[in-house]
Amino acid sequence: MIERTASTWPECDLPDGLLAVRAAEGDEDAFAVLVRRHSRPLLTLALCMLGSPQDAEDAVQEAFVSAWRRLPEYRHGAEFRTWMYRITVNRCLTMRGRRPAPLPLGTAAEPVAGDAWSQPERVAEQDAAAADLTRALAGLDAGQRICWILREVQGLPYKEIALVTRTSEPTVRGRLFRARRSLQEAMGPWR
After folding, report:
1. Exposed/middle/buried for 20, CB within 10 Å: 0-12, 13-18, 19+?
2. pLDDT winner (highest mean) among 8-12, 132-136, 167-171
């Protein structure tokens, strides 16, 4: 018998909900497809929240381990993606509670040689702006920061952010409004 792997698994076009059902029944290949689909955005989220690539990887790995164990509890009324965001956010908050960490924005792509942005003055300016934005984000309360990251970095719609944060859409909109206003004030000198 040929062993089936996630990379050659023919049903990888299946929707998350069906894959989650199969994974809950013990299908490791189905879960591997879900991990592959959702790892990158969850890593980005965790990195924005924790500031350390290693901590972000640990948080996402622990979130997937937790999800695997809790799959029988998964309610299919919410999207699997939303459920994973919630687990990851909770894991990151727990890790941040243990020790405060700076909130980096991520890494910038290497500039192309000869590009105007590769000039040392521009690079220094970009680094300073990114550092100021990082400090401004760290100054937001956790609810505002999470909403801002999920909307502006991850591109989630308000309704899904409300599900992830277990709040209402108006609360999400209010947190985003306050976060944007605070960031706009903090970044005023960069305009």
Report:
1. buried
2. 167-171
* Closest alpha carbon to 81 in 34, 113, 122, 33: 34
- Torsion sign (Cα): 98, 104, 106, 110: negative
Q: What is the mean pLDDT of the chain?
A: 81
Question: What tokens does 59 get?
Answer: 């948080």
Q: 158 near 169, Cβ under 8 Å?
A: yes
Q: How far apart are CA 110 and CA 123, in angstroms?
A: 10
Cβ neighbours around 31 below 10 Å, total: 20
Distances, alpha carbon 5 to alpha carbons 1, 21, 113, 131, in Å: 13, 18, 41, 43
Distance of CA 144 to CAs 19, 62, 157, 165, Å?
A: 32, 24, 15, 10
pTM (2 decimals)? 0.67
